[in-house]
Amino acid sequence: MIYEVVNRDICIGHIQVEAVASSGLLIVGDTNTIQLTSLFDTPAESLIIGPSVPLNPPG
Predict the structure, then answer these.
(1) Are 36 and 22 within 8 A, CB to CB?
(2) Which of 23, 37, 58, 59 is the most buried (most CB within 10 A)?
(3) DSSP reduced 3-state for 44
(4) What is the per-residue pLDDT across 10-38, written as a single tens digit (0 to 9) for each?
């Protein structure tokens, strides 16, 4: 298999983001470094941690 990549200039006029997932990333063009950050906008006192539920219950 021969795979050839040709990088050319791109021009993005407008990007409209309708929603962002909990782990979303939008990249336009090339990048050398990606820095991960996190934002938690709910007050800590409203966080309720209950018992863990398995995603695939046995049986």
Answers:
(1) no
(2) 23
(3) helix
(4) 788 888 888 777 667 777 777 777 777 77
pTM strictly above 0.85: no
Show the tokens assigned to 46.
């409203």
Burial readout 40-59 (b: 16 or more C-beta within 10 A, e: otherwise): eeeeeeeeeeeeeeeeeeee
Residue 39's Cα: distance from chain center in Å? Answer: 13
Residue 6's identity, in one-letter code, is V
* Token pair 């050398």: residue: 32
Q: Which amino acid is at 16?
A: Q
Residue 11 tokens read as 């021009």
